[in-house]
């Protein structure tokens, strides 16, 4: 023991710096952020091409966005057609079978998939950079000449129907579907998936005319990021996409955004559920809105980061849940704000109470300077991390065009975040964290939790298929 | 033999007459050394963005948790965010986020990691935070109870309240392995998660969370010499501990096929999972097995996907791989190749198995084509680049190589054994390992249930 002690004393004497430091070390000098040079060009057919070299690995990432092909396109005649078109477009072209496409992708170390949402259809692709010209040729073929083979269409219809059936067993699917419908009502943003009859009735001809009408170069942008030489890459893109014919842009729709006038509960009954899946929220703003940065930062403080108020309250203090969250989803025409948590049945009511308490606290009292500064650092620091990955940078650039943002969005991000005041945050919260007119969506076992839920408002109960079962 | 892949690239490219670009050799700078207390340190400079990842990987995972304490390694991971001598409960998150970073931890079969990615001028903050909890984790009864509740909700949300309940991991491992360390439920039984005591936490910490049982990795826009000084300052005086006595993870060889039938209260569609024991990583068969897994089931061009989802159209999806959670390098114990597929009503598990077997039989009889093999190698290379793209992905590979092989420099030659695989070796691996006696099959079908009763 004595020997040990003296050894320790000696250590302390020789290297006093090794004592445990009690306070966090200060930051070093900030390292320069050298953003890749972003070049924008246009092909004669109207396709916008945006290039950004980011040679972190010998790969290339490409995002082709069709702004005119959304889940709202052709929705009256063919609900769900955009999603089926997106899932079958890479299953055969006029000159390639599905299998040939997949095998060619494997031989260039690549991938290519499409998905459709309320604002666009996106083709996401990547490959080894040495094969970029082959990747562009494949992308162009899929964009221009999808053939929608009969067997592939049938298979996609059948599988989509089964996947939706499988999804109806998953509380995550159900709570999201009901939330979109509750918040956006009949607005196109309320669409999640089509019913089985609509999906089954789609034909190959419908799909072909859909892509002819909506997959247009003059309503698309192609963002390419990676280990590229911009001039050489642009030449490859011109070769691959140059022959694509432009078309007439479909008229832009601007359907009225629904306004909620009261707090309502939408309960999806899932007998046997041992948790309640809770989403609470409301309509917010389009991405272009001047309040974007304020609501984004209010969300970071409320529930959008790990050290957020909601996590500290219902997870770290009360232990109600594993992953409470909130998110601000701003899109082209409008957006939504939502908070949520998956909690054991016994604490369903107490969780609603705390979610509302924290929302109201944001509306009524200003956040502290410390909280705001932390949120600013969080946003700007993580923004740099996002831009350091090919997918992150490509996705971020693509949103500038999808949402028609200022071209300086990336460079302006830091100054706009840094300019925010606690008053801005409170104002945004007061406006958009609207507890009085919120939609409360819960997926759970009604018999087990109804007594905890009913004090919060009028309830409409749905089954997992989306049918109204009863109104309380 | 690194030429195999280049030759195939040139051949593939020449068809389109595009300029041939040689694959760039990997040249990741790696500095590796050990502190006197046994801590392994890996530093890799990368100046592409002003970002750094600081991570500590501990050489303990789910397999080594105590009997009667399933889920404990993961519960313990949560306790590492509950405060240490100079960092209060949950303040680790506050420090990292308020300095522009993000953070997390993960419990795997054979390791548990903690990491933060931050602006690179905050590197010392990350080192200080990790050193403070390695040296002086502070555990209270109240915080343990709180995290037992949180982890119980995590198990409910990800397992118990979900259709299929992660059967392709938890049940498959439970049935495929016989050694408790490999077979037990690593997410944990709620009763055992909640039975854990402060004493359990203290003893686990002392045994496994010592510098001589860990790797510290720093990757990003930093200066190696400055980081070395900081590492010495914050980790140099943390005392080492006696090396833990490690449980025996060996598995007796499987000699008979195992078939398990299950019902699911929540699922709407039937699903099937299979697991085949794979050769150990130091086996000469391993690289061929890893490529065979890709040829069979990675991506939409894979043989099983093409057969089951496309040609026969009897399943909806196909997923899985050689290591359920990770890659070829980030585990040490026995492993099974996992496959999971949701099949369509009107079909049976036997039918799915029959088709999977027909694909295997074809490879055993005829082997794979040269093109199939060279494409698998290209897709493997591309996949490795994806893992190396960000500072966290690079951190992960470097840490695993330091932890399990004591040689993170291997990151620059990881592809070589895979590039050298021949078609004959693939055929041989299929014949040797993809046999019924080496597998476990679970068929999980929806429990016949009455029409859901609606609320009154």
Q: What report would you give on this structure?
A:
The complex is a heterodimer of chains A (472) and B (456). With 472 residues, chain A is an alpha+beta fold. Chain A folds into two domains: 39-241, 2-Layer Sandwich (Cytochrome Bc1 Complex, Chain A, domain 1); 264-471, Metalloenzyme, LuxS/M16 peptidase-like (Cytochrome Bc1 Complex, Chain A, domain 1), CATH 3.30.830. In chain A, 43% of the residues lie in helices and 18% in strands. Chain A has 17 helices and 13 strands. Chain A has a seven-stranded mixed sheet, with helices on both faces. Chain A has a six-stranded mixed sheet with strand order 1-2-6-3-5-4, sandwiched between helices. In chain A, strand 4 and strand 5 form a beta hairpin. The longest helix of chain A has 19 residues, at 369-387. Residues 1-17 of chain A have low confidence and may be disordered. Chain B has 456 residues and is an alpha+beta fold. Chain B has two domains: 31-235, Cytochrome Bc1 Complex, Chain A, domain 1, CATH 3.30.830.10; 258-446, Metalloenzyme, LuxS/M16 peptidase-like (Cytochrome Bc1 Complex, Chain A, domain 1, 2-Layer Sandwich), CATH 3.30.830.10. Chain B has helices at 3-14, 72-79, 91-98, 123-136, 141-160, 170-176, 180-183, 190-195, 198-208, 224-235, 286-297, 303-311, 349-366, 370-388, 391-405, 416-419, 423-433; strands at residues 31-34, 40-45, 51-58, 102-107, 112-119, 214-220, 258-264, 271-277, 319-321, 336-342, 439-446. Chain B has a six-stranded mixed sheet, sandwiched between helices. A five-stranded mixed sheet of chain B has the order 7-11-8-10-9, sandwiched between helices. In chain B, helix 2 (72-79) packs across helix 5 (141-160). Chain B is globular. The relative contact order of chain B is 0.17. At the A-B interface, helix 3, helix 4, helix 5, helix 11 and strand 10 of A face helix 1, helix 3, strand 5, helix 4 and helix 5 of B.
